[in-house]
Amino acid sequence: MLDPIVAFFQRVFAAIGRGIGLFISWLVWPFVAAANWYRQRSWLIKGPIGIVLLGLVALYGYFIWQTQVWTNFNIDYVNAYNFPARKNDAGLPVKSAAQSSGATTATGQTAGQAAPANACERSAIVDVAADLIDFNVDQNAWISSMVLYKLGLFGIDWDDTPWLDNKASFQRGVNQAVRRTTVELVDSLGRVRGTSGVNNDLQSARGNIQFDEETWYFSLSPFGPRTPTPSIYRAAARDLQRFNASLTACNSTFDARSDNLVEFLDRIANDIGNTSAIIRERSEFHNGGWFDVRADDRFWFAFGQLYGYYGILSAAGADFDSVIAQRGLTQIWNETLKQLRSALNIQPAIISNGREDGWIMPTHLATMGFYILRVRSNLVEMRDILAR
């Protein structure tokens, strides 16, 4: 009675097996043909080809290693700066021990009144921005400009595949936060509005960090050798460090006014708002669950952006400490940093872009979008309080 049914399923599975076998044969045929051809050649031909193949294997091994190993990735990296120990806003004179204790001089004045400042407080924002660049291009290889990343998988962009692109997206997200910060440093934070020009070091840093993210040592358009992206970004980090050295010597300006903080928060809110819109579009119209190959790009870009802003906003809390305290923002500021830190706990092994009402595949994009909107809402609220 059951024999016809069993025979039917046997034929079905046999057909499926033959189909899989034919597909695998088609897939490996070029490699088998190449191996047969290679075995029939003389060593004059085998030698150079073998060397090239070994070079490719080593190059791909290095590439895969760099995309999978995230050196010094630490969601609590902000703790190393010990920002709560800061006593001055950025750019303000740093008092010596004698000045702080109010010691008197021979003329009867306090040291704090008599002695001019010979050191000023460095900018924590600038320090973090420079360190994030170092993290991206020195502590790790900059993936987006590596030649194998540019070549893709048999001509397919790595971003259109589920593999080897998460670190590149994360790095671009971190870089986006640094780019936004350098623009604000040039336009407002690093100058006294209306009375001073643009700082040359900050201007150079902004120009360098805006450089194309995918430039290798050689380009076809325009044709010829190029300076690769990591080298340009390293120059931006050096520019930022020069500015802070100048600021420490009281030869540069950091204007820690409330209106500058308003603009800074507004630009960051707009920046992550744009990312939220991209995530929403992907979540609503491309919810393919684990099979959405672009979901991981969107997720890790947003993650990298929040990773960068977590450090930069923590630094801003130190640079603008007086403004935050005087305007009663301490509680909401700390809550915003906690929300940023909470978002960084979301690190799924495989990114899924499932339906929001689904019950099989999770929706990591919607979860990340929720955290972004929480942070943005707090930024907007702080901006409005400061603008009153």
Give me the Rg, rounded: 28 Å
Strand order of the largest sheet: 1-2
* Terminal residue distance: 84 Å
Number of helices: 14
Q: Supply the number of structural domains.
A: 2
Report low-confidence residues grouped into runs of 5 or more. 100-116
Number of beta strands: 2
Q: What does the largest sheet look like? A: 2 strands, antiparallel
Inertia-based shape: flat
Structural class: mainly alpha
Give the ordered list of helices and strands. Answer: HHHHHHHHEEHHHHHH
- How much of the sequence lies in strands comes to under 5%
Q: What is the helical fraction, as a range of percent?
A: 55-70%
Mean pLDDT score: 88
Protein name: DUF2333 family protein
Pfam families: DUF2333
Keywords: Membrane, Transmembrane, Transmembrane helix
Organism: Rhizobium subbaraonis
